[in-house]
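User: As part of a screening pipeline, I want to sanity-check one entry by hand. Below is the sequence and the SMILES for pyridoxal-5'-phosphate. Please return the complex as structure tokens so I can compare it with the automated output.
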Amino acid sequence: MTEKITNRKIIEILEKNDKYCSHGDTVNYADPPKVFENCEGSFLFDENGTAYLDWQMWYSAVNFGYKNKRLADTMHKQIDTLPQLASQYLHKEKVDLAEIICKYMEEKYGVKGRVHFNVGGAQAVEDSLKVVRNHTGKTHQFAFMGGYHGRTLGASAITSSFRYRRRFGNFADRAEFVPYPYCYRCPYDMKVETCDTYCHKQFEKLFETEYQSVWDTKAKESEFGAFYIEPMQGTGGYIIPPDGYMEKLQASLKKRNILLVADEIQMGVYRTGKLWSWENFGIVPDIFVFGKAITNGLNPLSGIWAREELISPEKFPPGSTHSTFASNPMGTAVALEVMKMTQEEDFGAQVNKTGAYFLKQIQALKSRWKVVGDVSGLGLALRIELCEKDGYTASRELADRMFNEGLKGDLLVGDKKYGLVLDIGGYQKNVITLAPNLLISEEEIDLGIHLFEMLLRRCGAE
Ligand SMILES: Cc1ncc(COP(=O)(O)O)c(C=O)c1O
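Assistant: Here is the complex for your manual check:
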């Protein structure tokens, strides 16, 4: 951003950030970093009280809106009863939450399993890697190009970007990265209408002879323990896989005793209109990992669900992993309330209804703007590809400009100023990935579309 900042309080925050904060623990995409002071529902507010409609909601951690009253009340109640407790002792909310998740799997999919808690998403990914290694004895995993699983050492090893590993030496357990079915920009230059999931056939080919290096044809054994997937890619650009792909992939893995691990950290908890995004694609993973919105971005809690034979106490004994804050009661209490709240009614149907309305609006946007190359959505996980005027060549520059302009908070609607909080993802960083409040109203969607078009105009996209 180029505008000169004059507010003394903001200048001080920025100066202290420059001087005292490591810049290694996040990326402040805006320059200088944006400061917010308040939030409510679908909006963030700056120091002047200007409202910024949030189309990103803390990377899909705040699925149920900022300051959601029911969830905030649960936190307050827990503060007044049992806010702190070492994980070695039990509390009711922990076991009730695990029960709800396990019963959902038993009743809907007929599989028994257990839930294992931790604090951050990447930490839960690490725990799942231990479960895989412990069960299979294998260090190597498959993962998708374009996949993101976090930034701890283990999670970086299965995250596709070399950029995240470059400074940190050898990753002996670096995953074998397989092209994700990104049909709009097919890695094999095929057309989805006619390819007959060519990419899956290429994956199958890896097992044809021992010389493809993943399969011992005599021992009938793979060097790989699991395939880590984001069923719908998040950071990779909110890409929906084509019909049938995930089912075929799971069949290929089952045939070779390779586990399927679904990372639900970003797309889980109703972002795609289902509790878990894998439920959209006809598969049932052996393990899935969750975090973020399970507590609506309040006290952090993450975890994994794994099939009983992978995680029974005999198989995965006490202390196989541990974190002081693993099943912290503030986290379990609010996560339990999230599960209760979403199971009282057909929450998924409501998300899909709002998602259909939102998708219609961005499809209309595509018909009005040449620079909008592709739009799609599942539930309330939606994408807008920004391009050159040919409608295909990726334009990172336009995405960056719109991102920065949206954070200025000076878009005039009537006599009120607004900002628009956008998130950029995708392989070429030209995709606006939309993760709005799941409780967003149609009026707020319309306002967002209006603000987005103001940004397009301002950034010279006409
Ligand atoms: C799909 C996915 N997996 C893992 C992670 C890592 O989670 P955390 O940032 O909580 O460590 C993220 C975070 O964005 C994610 O989107």
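Points to compare against the pipeline: Residues 59, 120-122, 125, 148-150, 230, 234-235, 263, 265-266, 291 surround pyridoxal-5'-phosphate (CB under 6 Å). The first helix runs from residue 8 to 20.
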